[in-house]
Amino acid sequence: MLFSRIALIGLLSLLSSFVLALDPPQSRVVLTVTGKITHTNSDNAAQFDMGMLASMPKVNVTTATSWHDGGPHTFTGVDAKALFDAVGIQGSNLRITALNDYMTDVPVSDFLDQGAILATHIDGQPMSVRDKGPMMVIYPFDDNPTLKNEKYYGRSIWQIKTIQVKE
Ligand SMILES: Nc1nc2c(c(=O)[nH]1)N[C@H]1C(S)=C(S)[C@@H](COP(=O)(O)O)O[C@H]1N2
Ligand SMILES: [Mo]
Questions:
Q1: In 3D, which of 49, 109, 56 has the Cα closest to residue 78?
Q2: Is the pLDDT of residue 19 over 60?
Q3: How many whole angstroms from 135 Cα to the centroid of ligand 1?
Q4: Would you list the DSSP string of 47-81?
Q5: pTM for the complete prediction?
Q6: CB 93 within 8 A of CB 78
Q7: What per-residue confidence (pLDDT) applies to 106?
Q8: 22-59, pLDDT tens digit by residue?
Q9: Are the CB atoms for 131 and 109 separated by under 8 Å?
Q10: Do the bridges between strand 29-35 and strand 160-166 make them parallel or antiparallel, or are there none, so unpaired?
C-alpha cells in the first residue's frame, strides 16, 4: 500500500515534469528568461529560439508609435500569458534588458491588463535587429492615449535580449 502510494507519487511527478518541461532551443537563442521562474531548459534559465516563440499563441496590436514611420502598423507577438505560463512565472515585475544594454522594468500587469505585447513582427515581417527586433514591447497607444507618456515610452524597449522575473 505504502509502496504503491510512493510509486503513484513518483509516476505523477514524472508525468508533470513531462507536461511542464520546456524543450531546449534548437537554433540561435533570441530570448533568455531568468529569475523567479519554475520551468527552465538550461542553467536556471528558460531560453527561446525563434521557432519556440513562433509556436506560441499570437497577439496583435495595431498602432502608430514614435519610433515607426508611416502611420499605424500592425505588430504581432507572442501572447505574453503563454510565455509566462511556459516559464512558470512566479513574480510580478520584469527587468528587461536590450542588446544595447538599455534596461527597463515592466510590470507583468502591463501585458495582462494594459494590452502590451512582446512584438516579433511588424506588418507580417519579422523585426530585424536594425528594425528594433528581434523583440520589442509595444503598447496599444492608439487605443489608449493615456499610454502616451514618458512612463510607457521608457518601457517600450526594443532589441530585447533578456527578461529577469522579479518579485
Ligand atoms: N533598446 C532600447 N530601447 C529603448 C531605449 C533605448 O535606448 N534602447 N530608450 C527608451 C526610452 S528612455 C524612451 S523615452 C523611448 C524613446 O527613446 P527615443 O526617444 O530615444 O527614441 O524608447 C525606449 N526604449
Ligand atoms: Mo525616455
A1: 56
A2: no
A3: 14
A4: EEEHHHHHTS-EEEEEEEETTEEEEEEEEEEE-HH
A5: 0.89
A6: no
A7: 98
A8: 999 999 999 999 999 999 999 999 999 999 999 999 99
A9: no
A10: parallel
